Amino acid sequence: MATNDLLVIWDVDGTLLDAKGAGHRALARAIEEVTGKQTSFALMDVAGQSDRLLLELALKQVGESPRRWETVRTAYEKFLDRELSESGSDALPGVMESLRILGPARVLGTGNLEVGARLKLFYAGLADHFQGGGFGDRHRTRAPLIRDAIKEGRRLFGRRLLPVIVGDTPRDAAAARLLHIPAVLVASGRFSVDQLHAHGSIVLAGLKDPAAVLGAFTQAEASARRGG
Ligand SMILES: [Mg+2]
């Protein structure tokens, strides 16, 4: 197969699954429990942001110190489990088949807190498919958490693998550009194919068509060999 040498770095929300707003509801409940104040993510530019940054911004929004984010995190993880147990989390169409055809050399590269990512994957039935990755606990922006994901992937699967990001937002593309690695962008809802084309050359309408998925990642591998 043409993608044997790739380390595929998977974004979570909007790429692997739809958690149906559970994350934002849990964040809002956590902020309210810890600070007694209500927050709204309606005006915040959240797509592809790290959860740590979102918690810090939400704390600032209600006039609290962003240093309290670790306290809010504990409450967030509790409420996320509750929200997901009520509303569930759906693997997006074509994800299972894409995981199969792209092979086992894969990690997560997500702005989610690690516990949050694992909860969302668990409720979507995807937990067994990922061993490790880079997460939003330690970083505010994507590029450094993708660097963690590459390090972890090479440790797990071999140093010579070529990393490629698969994500659904311009921030996924921006992180790939910063790190000089290719990105496959999937227009799974929030951004259209046209919008994503403005940020990267390899864009899929979704993951439902295995031939298109394989074609996109073959193109990504060729690009990775040229250095991103
Ligand atoms: Mg995403």
Word description of this protein:
There is one protein chain. The chain is of the alpha/beta class and 228 residues long. It folds into two domains: 6-18 and 90-225, Rossmann fold (3-Layer(aba) Sandwich); 22-87. The chain has nine helices and eight strands. A six-stranded parallel beta sheet has the order 5-4-1-6-7-8, sandwiched between helices. Helix 1 crosses helix 3, helix 3 (69-87) runs parallel beside helix 5 and helix 4 packs across helix 9. The two termini are 20 Å apart. The relative contact order is 0.19. The model has no long low-confidence stretch (mean pLDDT 93). The protein binds magnesium ion (MG).
Looking at this structure, what is the CATH superfamily of the largest domain?
HAD superfamily/HAD-like
Uncertain spans, ≥5 residues at pLDDT below 50?
none
Q: What general form does the structure show?
A: globular
Question: What value does the Rg take, in angstroms?
Answer: 17 Å
CATH topology of the largest domain: Rossmann fold
Number of domains as seen in the coordinates: 2
State the oligomer.
single chain
**Which ligands are bound?**
magnesium ion
- What's the pLDDT, averaged over the residues? 93
* Helix/strand structural class: alpha/beta
Percent in helix:
40-55%
CATH architecture of the largest domain: 3-Layer(aba) Sandwich
